[in-house]
Amino acid sequence: MSTSSSIAVSLLAVVMLALGYTFSRERTTQQQQLHDQVAQLQRQMNQLATTTSVDIAPQEHRFLPTKEQKKNKTKLSLSCACETPSGFTYASDFGVIGDATADDTLALQAAIDSASANDSGGIVVIPKGTFRIFEPLIVPAGVTLQGQGYGDSPLAISFDAGASTIAYCGTDYAVKLAGHAAGLRDLAVYDWPYGTDCENIQAAGGVLVEADAALVESVIVSNIFIYFFLGGPALSLVAKNSAGIAFGNYQNVRIRHAKQGISLQAEESSFVNSNSFLAGGMSGGGFEVGVIAQGPGACNDNKFYGMFIEPPDTTLTHVYVSGAKTNVKFHDVRLEATSKSLDKPIVIIDDSSYGNVMNGLLGHTHVQANLNRNPDIDLMSAKSVGMDPAPKNLYWNSAFKGYNADDRMMPGFSLVGTNAAITILEDSDEMLFPDHNVIDVDYLNYGGAFKLMADITPKAPAHDFVTFGVYARSSVPGSISGAMRYESGNIISSASHSGGGDWEFIGMTALYDKSAPYFYFSITGDVQLTAPTFIYGKTPAIPGASLMSSSGARMSGTLTMGVTTVYPPPDATQYYWVIPKNSGNIFLIDTQGNPSRSIIRLNHRTADRFARGTLATLMFEEAGTRVKHNSYIKLKNNADFVSGPNTSITLMAGGSASWVEVSRNE
User: Fold this and answer.
1) CA–CA dist 174, 171 (Å, integer)
2) What spatial distance separates the first Cα and last Cα of the chain, rounded to whole Å?
3) 345: cis peptide before it, omega within 30°?
4) Neighbours of 575 (CB within 10 A)
5) pLDDT score recorded for residue 548
6) How far apart (Å, rounded) are the C-alpha atoms in residues 364 and 343?
7) In whole angstroms, what is the distance from residue 143 CA to residue 127 CA?
8) Helix H or strand E segment including 46
């Protein structure tokens, strides 16, 4: 008789024996004993079924019998020696007790080590119970520790609801996941406070995923309740010594009462990147911080979906992000702090961090962050609001109009270098956007790169990012790229044109050097350009925008212009008047009771000069003020203008210190 047949007969005999005791006075005790015997035999059969040698038919007969075999009713041979993979690893086979009293450290670790050594299946199944341990459980690569759930309450450990609880009594982390695809699921992890041997002992943390001089990928933690770790992080990901942790998946991790909820830390030259946290959340007391992510190594692109973070209060904040290489991405999160002082932020983003994404519900207090570096923080409440940059193209002549071929001058732009010939293509069939000219740049193949850049770049110290680019068409690979001075002071560049002959948008978004901003298009091949765009802030480019200063405009409403008052200059420079820039186009001349004054120069200093084409109307209430015709103020018919009551003269700036009369009202 085969081994499997013997076990089957034994199992049948045990069942029959159990029936024979049905009416015995000792029924309860004997049935429990028989139940245990049946369970043991079932495990033996499972093990036998997964390790029994089975013969497989030869290749030619492996799947279907031949016609001859069907005719002769030949029986296929299924005998050749091979082994099938092992099944689950049952911790109960290694002597775990789970009565909240016995020390199950060695038994649990033995089961895990067996799975790691391929002596049994890679999933270690622990039964219901409370398993006390006094040393961390080390779960290596490819092994998953799986329980029976964490009970019927997300607020406290349930000891009578079929749960599997790891009850740690020690000063280290309770569970350490130490390799690729290590896993933990369907159980509770508890910083055990009971018994004289555990009094005044506090764990350093709950679950630790650690990479030390190695890469750890694809860790899975699912349906875990981490409870009462008031001495450190409930869940911690730490990379050190040029190590990395990436692509992990953490689902429904429920944290209750902890010093830190989830801690992500990358030491110098290490990274913790692109891990995902799905649902779950944290609540209760004792929190210093809910989620903390910090460098100095790369700790970015870690994503949190649908999580709640709602301790009534935290001593630091609910979410803290620090480091130039650190950011987090929160999607549909819920942040609440019902007991936090309203002057304390619920989110703190260090000024060095950028690229954070946050959206969802902000229930209390506010966000402390540089929103120009983090425009994708959209958490809004009565105490806080997100911010997007203004979508305004600051290339005021983005339509490339007004090019003077004789002087090689393009309003609004500087053409740096003589190593390119410029032609304007005004044919509407060539235009990519309405009313936007196309310029054809014929690169002359000498003298390095030809540069196209704005003649004046407005400064915006409030912004840390800049976005700029241009549509380009070229058959020369690498003919054009965007370039700028980065925050560090180094020049960086965008991707260049492919040379495929089609229109491509060439541009970039990056942190810029506020102390010396510098942006340009570097051209080293024949290329056609149209619709350049320049925006302060981290935002998609908006080429083709029709601004009144760029491609013309039609108005159906009222145009309102700025009006400001101008006072006489000091006696030492009594003929050199200054009208203020950026204050409007209409200037009320206040002669301070002495209208017998003369104006010979306007805005003579370089810093005060208006852009070429600016119109300025000087309005006089009193008679007797003279605007003198000269080489700097050229008046109609070379005739001076002398004011009368409520008269005016309109001048156009020449771009230097010169002005030309447009009209007068005497």
Assistant:
1) 9
2) 127
3) no
4) 12
5) 57
6) 10
7) 17
8) helix 27-51
